[in-house]
Amino acid sequence: MAHNSLYGVVDERIVNLTNLIILDLNSNQPSGNIPSNTGTPSSLKFMILHTNNLAGSLPQYLLNCTNLIELNLRFNNFEGVISMFNFSKFVHLSKIDLQRNYFTCIFPVSLYSCKSLRAIRLSFNDIEGQIQPEILSLKSLSFLSLGGTRLTNVTGAMKILMRCESFVALFFSYNFLGEEIPADGEMVEFNGFQNLQVLSISQLQFLRSLDPSFNNFSGDIPNQISNLINLERLDLSMNQLSGEIPTSITSLTFLASFNVSHNNLQGLIPKSTQLQGFDISAFEGNPKLCGAPLPMSAPERLVLMKMIRKPKTWRMNIIKFHGFMFLSVLGSFSDSGEFVVL
Predict the structure, then answer these.
(1) Which of 290, 306, 332 is the last residue of a domain?
(2) Percentage of the chain with pLDDT > 90?
(3) Do 300 and 341 lie in a common domain?
(4) Closest Cα partner for 87 from 77, 98, 76?
(5) In sequence order, what DSSP letters do the residues of 128-191 get, joined into one string?
(6) Which helix (H) or strand (E) covers residue 333, if one does?
(7) Residues 272 and 319 in one domain
């Protein structure tokens, strides 16, 4: 019954459907509270009510739905202190999504007892507290989104979460406001995130050092990294990053240390006083990457040699090629392979 124009209050008799397995009313217009009768569809496995106008608190009879696999209530008007709700009864719960409601609480620690959890999204609720080491007991957890809450202690969170080898995506934007990541010996390293593909901590405006080197990160370097305006050290080496180095990185004016070596980057290195000032070792190990400060590659030298072979006349210009200045000759090759001056 998803994606219809259903509206009104959810009928209380729905709790009498004791054999109901899937309740999916997402993307409609129902309003009011979830029925609070003591009856309950105890066989319920999927409660998918997101993107509606539902309100009220989570009814306690949901605790009888011990077969629940997915609870998706995002984009509603639910409220209440969810830390008082005992999630530990949901031994089969794989996904919980309460994004953009009005829940308030310290992070509900009873979720740590849901050993089957693969995805937790509690973002944009009034949730506070710190990430606790108990989260390490969720061996299958791969997705965690807590953006737009009031979490604290980013250093402690990273030190704990980097030990979760199953993580694929972590979202912490609009958290840890005003915190500064410790530098030098206390700096949090990301070497433990063996499978992490997405890390969002964009509101860390005081971040001075970012080192996710020696991992399996893939894909393009995100442009959003330029939002870390105080960044002084960026080490993306020894990953599987591809695409070009984004020109937005040239706006990181405080960058004193930079390393993208041993990836699969390609194209021209963006021109800036800082990037061209770094050592060649910061870019090596990317066969398709070119431009200063890298030396001209063998194929580039070969093209240059062919261009100057047996010219009849010269039309000379001083041009720059990948940061090197040299004489150019305007011409082309004939079908026989000889150079023909234009």
Answers:
(1) 290
(2) 35
(3) yes
(4) 98
(5) EE---GGGGG-TT--EEE-TTSEE--HHHHHHHHTT-TT--EEE-TT-STT-----GGGPPP-T
(6) strand 331-333
(7) no
- Residue 214: strand, helix, or coil: coil
Q: Which helix (H) or strand (E) holds 263?
A: none
Is the peptide bond prior to 293 cis by the omega test (within 30 degrees of 0)?
yes
Taking residue 17's Cβ as centre, other Cβ atoms within 10 Å add up to 14
Least-confidence region, from 38-47, 53-62, 244-253: 38-47
- What's the CATH number where 249 sits? 3.80.10.10
The residue segments making up the domain with residue 304 are 296-342
Residue 271 pLDDT class (50, 70, 90 cuts)? confident
Residue 213 sits in the same domain as residue 268: yes
pLDDT at 299: 62
CA distance linking residue 88 with residue 249, whole number of Å: 45
**45 in Cβ contact with 68 (< 8 Å):** yes
Q: Are 251 and 306 part of one and the same domain?
A: no
Q: How far is the C-alpha of 147 from the C-alpha of 122, rounded, in Å?
A: 8
Q: Would you report the helix, strand and coil content of the chain in percent, each value rounded to 5?
A: 20, 25, 55
Confidence at residue 337, expressed as pLDDT on a 0 to 100 scale: 37
DSSP 94-120: -EEE--SSEEEEE--GGGGG-TT--EE
Domain check: are 257 and 323 in the same one? no
**If you search the block for the tokens 């959890």, which residue do you land on?**
117
Buried b (16+ CB within 10 A) or exposed e, 162-193: bebeebeebbbbbbbeebebeeeeeebebebb
**Residue 315 confidence (pLDDT) above 70:** no
- Of 139-143, 211-215, 267-271, the poorest mean pLDDT is in 211-215
Its pTM stands at 0.65
DSSP for 17-62, please give it: -TT--EEE--SSEEEEEPP--S---TT--EEE--SSEEEEPPPGGG
Grouping H, G, I as helix, E, B as strand and the rest as coil, residue 223 is helix
Binned at pLDDT 50, 70 and 90, residue 320 comes out as very low
In this predicted model, what pLDDT tens digit does every residue of 152-205 receive, in sequence order?
A: 887 788 888 888 878 888 888 777 776 655 444 444 455 566 677 777 765 555
Distance between CA atoms of residues 227 and 307, nearest Å:
43
